[in-house]
Amino acid sequence: MIDRIGEHLKFYQTALAVRQERQEVLASNIANADTPNYKARDMDFTATLKAALGGQGQMALPNTSLSLTSTRHIPAQATRPPSTDELLYRVPVQPSLDGNTVEMDVERMQFAITPCTIKARSTWASPALEKA
Question: Which residues form the Flagellar basal body rod protein N-terminal domain (predicted)?
Answer without folding.
Answer: 13-39
